[in-house]
């Protein structure tokens, strides 16, 4: 007995096991930790990672990641607010004017520039560190203390706001997306119930994938937001392939189990080829040194495997069990047959070929010149966090701390370094032992709590405040200057981290990831295509078809003059290739079959008419998934990834329906000579 027959023979058990596993996974997913800090995914050899590890080992205290503005207060009132803030659980390392000057002396005698970093126009600005694990609760308590007129800004607020706004977004995307996908499937199938079976099979696979994320220490917020939508969008094809084949075999046999068994065998090669190209596209992300790629890639690859198993095991069992219901809910086919579309496509194939050739090179060059964003992105000005940030910046300007760790011991050298750092462009203040206490006062004479802010057993901590944004040319230039200056004194033993320094490292690492990730994706998918078609030329033609659409997709932000998240740029390069090369596979598979009986032009016409409906269905689902994700997500990275995915699906479809027919007919002789057992129609080709 064949495996398919064994599966169908135990279909009730299979259904029970899958449903039970899905229910268990639904519970388990609530135990999965979602990480919103992209810096945690930097590799261990990154300078920021090394510095942060040392900080955690050597110092009990953190670094300021938030600024609290308290308007219309006196010095005494500001000190009372500072004390009240320090009593909030999870708030530490508060710093204000009293930490840098002696408040017993008149303010007029102090350095005006130093004073105005902390107290200006009757407003006090207190820097502090917020514990990451329960930042939402802490920020709520701070806002309750400072009232509506007060404001809080900083990296902790950006992270907490992203966390708060992202919660439930995946569910909202699904609420919008699932009904629309069901409508598309109803239009393209002939049963009211079949689309529900599709969604059930993929839904079970998504739950299994989300529940098994408990195996990982955490998943990134990008993985959490994108993975379920992508998994559904790229794997619905598998279900469509299977049930389409099942419908055909039902016309030749009245035995339902036999029809499904034959459908499982017939559709497995196509489903497997489709799954493998997507799988390898996702797995290429695992080789990113910036581990957010590996986090997303492994999750998506796992999702593809679950979808494949669910479609080839669970869906056949549930379909055979419900076949009477499928029969009772049949309806006429709503989608047109697209008869005549092949002739239209062949008429424009040469102009399409020329147009793509003209666009490909400029697009390739332009996509590398796009302005990139490496962090989470800016806060929406209309939100409380966005308005708070503007309020703080309007009075006190930007302030981004960079922590510098240097070996402890040489106080004179530390004082020289502090002075030189203070002279750098865009540096507003430098807080170190020598600047705050004085090099002439031995640490042994001071309270341990004061000393511990600056010294551990082995390291001295210096905090450099800059008036730049967290990222951008100016911010990264300042990070480089701080590092270069510190290395003059301490060489490679000087280490930095902080919002700008971390993103500087992200920039360096993801930029170097780009080439290797894209190359691996192309080689892996090319290898699958080589095995699928047993051809040396077809993998090249198919990859160029999709890769050209990727270049055009990624060049659009450059021509529009808009910045693009580099993470989105890197991820979409592999995701679009892995997810949409299936359209090209479907077209090519039909072309090779038709070419055995027809000349190139007629083969293309017939192939187009056979595949347009399927390609448009898949593309509509993928594109819709991307655009709805873009519309609903409040996170810049996720939203941009959605836009790229939606637009990429449309561009890939256009390339498959117009460029690929032109390429296959133009290179027909080459394909014949480089494809094993091509068996093309041998009649002498007519002049076309």
Give the class from helix and strand content and strand pairing. alpha+beta
Give the % helix: 55-70%
User: What would CATH call the class of the largest domain?
Assistant: Mainly Alpha
Low-confidence stretches: none
Distance between the termini: 51 Å
Percent strand: 5-15%
Count the beta strands: 13
CATH superfamily grouping of the largest domain: Multidrug efflux transporter AcrB transmembrane domain
The CATH topology annotation of the largest domain reads as Multidrug efflux transporter AcrB transmembrane fold
CATH architecture of the largest domain: Up-down Bundle
Backbone CA Rg: 30 Å
The gross shape turns out to be elongated
Annotation field: number of helices: 26
What is the average of the pLDDT values?
Answer: 87
Reported for the largest beta sheet, the result is:
5 strands, antiparallel
- Counting structural domains, the number is 4
Q: Can you describe this structure?
A:
The protein is an alpha+beta fold and 688 residues long. It folds into 4 domains: 199 residues, Multidrug efflux transporter AcrB transmembrane fold (Up-down Bundle), CATH 1.20.1640; 100 residues, Alpha-Beta Plaits (2-Layer Sandwich); 216 residues, Multidrug efflux transporter AcrB transmembrane domain (Multidrug efflux transporter AcrB transmembrane fold); 121 residues, Alpha-Beta Plaits (2-Layer Sandwich), CATH 3.30.70. Helix content is 65%, strand content 8%. It has 26 helices and 13 strands. The strands form 4 sheets. Strands 2, 3, 4, 5 and 6 form a 5-stranded antiparallel sheet that branches. It has a 4-stranded antiparallel sheet with strand order 10-11-9-12, sandwiched between helices. Strand 4 and strand 5 form a beta hairpin. Helix 10 runs antiparallel to helix 24, helix 11 packs across helix 23 and helix 22 runs antiparallel to helix 23. The two termini are 51 Å apart.
């Amino acid at each position: 007995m064949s495996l398919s027959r064994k599966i169908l023979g135990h279909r009730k058990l299979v259904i029970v096991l899958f449903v039970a596993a899905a229910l268990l996974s639904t519970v388990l997913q609530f135990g999965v930790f979602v990480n919103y800090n992209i810096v945690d995914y930097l590799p261990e050899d990154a300078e920021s990672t090394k510095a942060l590890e040392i900080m955690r080992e050597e110092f009990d205290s953190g670094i300021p990641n938030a600024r609290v503005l308290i308007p219309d207060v006196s010095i005494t009132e500001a000190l009372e607010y500072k004390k009240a803030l320090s009593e909030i659980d999870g708030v530490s390392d508060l710093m204000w004017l009293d930490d840098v000057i002696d408040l017993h002396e008149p303010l007029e005698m102090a350095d005006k520039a130093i004073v105005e970093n902390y107290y200006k126009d009757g407003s006090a600005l207190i820097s502090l560190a917020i514990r990451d694990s329960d930042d939402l609760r802490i920020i709520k308590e701070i806002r309750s203390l400072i009232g509506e007129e007060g404001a809080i800004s900083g990296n902790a607020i950006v992270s907490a706001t992203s966390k708060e706004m992202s919660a439930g977004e995946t569910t909202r995307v699904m609420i919008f997306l699932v009904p629309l996908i069901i409508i598309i499937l109803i239009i393209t199938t002939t049963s009211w119930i079949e689309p529900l079976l599709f969604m059930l099979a993929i839904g079970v696979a998504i739950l299994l994938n989300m529940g098994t994320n408990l195996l990982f220490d955490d998943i990134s917020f990008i993985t959490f937001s994108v993975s379920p939508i992508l998994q559904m969008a790229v794997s619905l094809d598998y279900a469509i392939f299977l049930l389409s084949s099942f419908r055909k075999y039902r016309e030749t046999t009245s035995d339902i189990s036999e029809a499904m068994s034959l459908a499982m065998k017939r559709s497995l090669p196509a489903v497997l080829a489709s799954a493998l190209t997507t799988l390898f596209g996702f797995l290429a992300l695992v080789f990113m040194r910036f581990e957010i790629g590996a986090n997303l890639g492994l999750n998506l690859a796992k999702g593809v495997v679950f979808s494949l198993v669910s479609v080839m095991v669970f869906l056949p069992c549930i379909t055979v069990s419900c076949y009477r219901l499928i029969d009772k809910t049949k309806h006429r086919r709503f989608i047109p047959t697209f008869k005549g579309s092949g002739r239209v496509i062949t008429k424009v194939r040469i102009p399409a070929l020329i147009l793509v050739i003209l666009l490909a090179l400029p697009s390739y060059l332009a996509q590398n010149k796009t302005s990139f964003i490496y962090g989470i992105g800016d806060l929406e000005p209309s939100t409380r966090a966005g308005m708070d940030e503007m309020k703080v910046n309007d009075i006190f300007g930007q302030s981004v701390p960079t922590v510098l760790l240097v070996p402890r011991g040489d106080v004179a050298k530390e004082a020289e370094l502090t002075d030189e750092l203070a002279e750098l462009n865009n540096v507003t203040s430098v807080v170190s032992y020598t600047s705050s206490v004085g090099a002439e006062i031995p640490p042994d004479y001071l309270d341990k709590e004061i000393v511990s802010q600056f010294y551990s057993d082995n390291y001295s901590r210096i905090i450099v405040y800059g008036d730049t944004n967290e990222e951008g040319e100016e911010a990264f230039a300042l990070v480089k200057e701080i590092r270069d200056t510190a290395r003059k004194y301490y060489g490679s033993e000087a280490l930095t981290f902080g919002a700008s320094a971390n993103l500087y490292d992200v920039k360096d690492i993801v930029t170097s990831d780009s080439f290797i990730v894209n190359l691996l994706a192309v080689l892996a998918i090319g290898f699958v295509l080589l095995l699928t078609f047993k051809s040396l030329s077809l993998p090249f033609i198919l990859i160029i078809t999709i890769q050209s659409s990727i270049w055009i997709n990624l060049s659009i932000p450059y021509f529009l003059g808009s910045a693009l998240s580099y993470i989105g740029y890197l991820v979409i390069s592999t995701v679009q290739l892995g997810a949409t090369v299936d359209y090209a596979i479907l077209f090519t598979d039909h072309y090779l079959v038709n070419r055995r009986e027809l000349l190139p032009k007629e083969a293309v016409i017939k192939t187009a008419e056979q595949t347009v409906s399927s390609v448009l269905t898949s593309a509509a689902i993928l594109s819709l998934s991307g655009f709805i994700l873009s519309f609903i997500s409040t996170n810049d990275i996720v939203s941009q990834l959605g836009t790229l995915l939606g637009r990429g699906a449309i561009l890939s479809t256009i390339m498959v329906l117009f460029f690929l027919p032109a390429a296959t007919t133009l290179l027909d002789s080459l394909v014949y000579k480089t494809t094993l057992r091509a068996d093309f129609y041998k009649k002498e080709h007519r002049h076309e």
